[in-house]
From TrEMBL:
It comes from the Eukaryota. Belongs to the prion family. GO terms for biological process: protein homooligomerization. Residues 27-49 are annotated as: Disordered. This is Prion/Doppel protein beta-ribbon domain-containing protein. Residues 1-24 form the signal peptide.
Amino acid sequence: MVRATYACCVTALLVVMCSNCVCSIKGGGSSKRPSRPKRPVKPKTITPTHSPGVLLFRGTRLNLNFTDNEETIYYANNFTYFPDEIFYPWNPRANATILTANIFVDECFNVTVTKNNLNLGEDVGPDGDIHSRVMEQVIQYLCLGQYGKIPNAATMHLGLTLLFPFVVWITSLWEYAVRL
């Protein structure tokens, strides 16, 4: 019983020491000069670094499954000339309707092609330029990846995800204290 009480006291002491309340005690320093008044914080303006449809080139190879062997070889040899990410954020206000993957990918593809002035039109087909065919498949793949990043109810519980390791740690500490 004494060990369990001791473990509870140690756990409570650790929680208090690690909390923000201890760090915000005023006048805890040993400086003899009075502290300077804090400057007012300037309001931060958030400026978007990218506009929707921007292609990002980092030189990483994507795991794409091409239907044609010629396209696979072409992409393997020239993957640095193709984008590996698209900046196309999901806006819940603009997309109030329920989006399917096909609608989202079509919108993302059209915005990306017009934003970057890509010549991917009617000439892209089985007989079209191989670079254009590969570029079309890469952009569709990246847009489909962006569709997977749409927040939903399963990924919105970030607070519980961050709290889980702390709960596991406290539980293991409690079990260790009970064994003593």
